[in-house]
Amino acid sequence: MSKRMLIFILFVIFITGCEEGSADPSDPSSAVAEVTQTEVATSTPRNTPALLAVTRVPLAVPPTPPPARPAAPQAGAQSISFSQDSGVSRSPLQLSLINHVGGTIRFTTNGALPDANSTPYGGPINIQESTVIRAQAFNDEGFPVGEAYTKSYLIVNYEQTIPVISIVADWKDLDSLHANAIERGREWERPMNMEYFAPGGWVQFNVKAGIRIHGGKSRLYSPKKSYRLYFRKSYGGPGKLEYPFFRDTQVTKFDKLVLRAGYNDSFTYLDEDNAPTSQTYTAKYIGDQVVRNLHRDMGQPIAHGSWVLLYLNGQFWGLYNLTERVDLQFFQSYSDDDADWDVVEKDVGWTPMGEWYSRERARDGDYGAWLENQEWVGNVDFSNPGNIGVLEWRVNMENVFSYLFLQAYVQNYDWPRSNWIVYRRKDTGATGPEAQWRMMVWDAEYSFGNGSKGFMTDMNTVVKVHSPHDSITRILEKPFILNCALKHRFVNRAREYLGVENLDGRPAHEVGHLSKDRVKAEITRQAAIVRPFMQMEIDRWVPHLGIDAGLFEQNI
User: Fold this and answer.
1) CA 435 to the chain's CA centroid
2) Can you say whether residue 163 is alpha, beta or left, with left for phi > 0 and alpha for psi between -120 and 50 degrees?
3) pLDDT confidence of residue 158
4) Can you list the positions of beta strands (E) in 428-505?
5) How far apart are CA 142 and CA 277, in angstroms?
6) Residue 447 pLDDT more than 50?
7) Secondary-structure breakdown of the chain: helix, strand, coil percentages, each rounded to the nearest 5
8) CB 168 within 8 A of CB 193
9) How far is CA 20 from the centre of its chain?
């Protein structure tokens, strides 16, 4: 959708419904009249903090990879030492193992933990290609002694400009997950070992963790799955892994992370007959990350992300988007460890019986609180400016305006029928925007012309902003109908986001977030990160399509 068309649609929204008797559009302040104590007591939840401006999170300094560290045991007393630590290298190497406890070192290269029947170590191991080593000392009776060690030696033919993650696990476990990808929950989580290599190949950490399948439709149709990684102590992990994965947040402790394959914005997209479609050929890979970053630049909280290359048991598994997981623990990491949050999502997918479902549910906390808010919105008279004040006390309108207009701007036509999250903090420690309902971008893969309705279709996605058909957009539907002043404010704010107007004289960082230059700059920045690895991705997953990285360039 062109900027000229977008501005025209906003104009139509502004004038439509502003008939005589509506709230006065020349007096926007009438829509935010102070709410009386009586109105608050009868119309709102228990916490009533003052509405505060949304603060911008400063960018943290990107981590500098440390020099190579000497090989060391992962935990406990050292029973085996390695002549070289794990790494990403362009050259073959020779690896020696030293036994510190006697008996016999046995090792595997297929991801399985060694047992008393595994290959005995008898001398240096020549590593000519990417190889994972799992080694364990055994005494003369065949019982394990000390720790089992896992090391990844990845021999590559590319310049490693983004991090690499190596996951090592028994293929029986991985194959079970892949074969039962529709299954969910803790019982479908399997143990694994994870190593993380900064650009340049230096290993940053080596931890035990758990892995499960993540995602929706990709569970059924994509050969390249998305994964969720858990750092539980029950696996021998840290509980919370501490590392600065994301340069745009100061949070560095994570109990879980997501490896997003980006199915709907990738060349691996397949239809129900496991065949490529027109959507397959529109892939850009970066859409969701770009949209999340744009919302970040609009001053809003996001699930931070970065790009990595994934290896499973030494096999290249493709380009992945490493992100935070939006749930209770995520919000606690940005507030207090014991904070209580309601996190509500639009959840779509298939049941284990193969039945499609589309539902709203609480990912964490209480769904009833969101339902109560929506019932209030549906029953109140918004021609009364005081009720607009109550709405702004319940809901953070700057967040709502930015989120809804951003979804319209990027033409995310898979939304709002799916892929939305609303959240609020409900305990007595909530302050400012924490206590208000807000919205967070997640899974914006159907954006910027992607998909079967992309490129050749110029859709009016602005109308979805105030649609009566979806819970999340009913926030604005009735208020827009009954209060022209609120609609007027939304249109003005949208024009500020576009950078075509600044009636209120806002500072530079509060306007122009969606100007052509700034949006293009973010697209260019993300494309530059993934570009060197696009042909590798194609060769790994879709060599049969007869395409090359030139199609990626065309789509960008």
Assistant:
1) 23
2) beta
3) 97
4) 438-440
5) 54
6) yes
7) 35, 25, 45
8) yes
9) 45
474-482 helix and 367-379 helix, angle to the nearest 10 degrees: 20
Return d(Cα 513, Cα 520) in angstroms, integer.
11
What are the pLDDT digits (tens) for 223-250? Answer: 999 999 999 999 999 999 999 999 999 9
Closest CA to 446 of 279, 325, 222, 258: 279
CA gap 490, 501 in Å, rounded:
13
Q: Any idea what DSSP says for residue 363? A: E
Residue carrying structure tokens 């931890």: 207
Element (H, E) at 94: strand 93-95
One DSSP character per residue, 116-152 reads TTSEEP-SPEEE-S-EEEEEEEE-TTS-EEEEEEEEE
Per-residue pLDDT at 68 exceeds 60: no
Is the peptide bond between 416 and the residue preceding it cis, with omega within 30 degrees of 0?
yes
Dihedral over alpha carbons 192, 197, 202, 204 (to 10 degrees):
-60
Cβ 150 vs Cβ 170: under 8 Å: no
Dist CA 25 CA 398 (whole Å): 18
CA distance 275 to 470: 31
What is the tally of helices (H) and strands (E) in the chain?
Answer: 14, 22
Residue in 341, 459, 486, 483 with CA at minimum distance from that of residue 400 = 486
**Would residue 436 be called left, alpha or beta, if left means φ above 0 and alpha means ψ between -120 and 50 degrees?**
beta
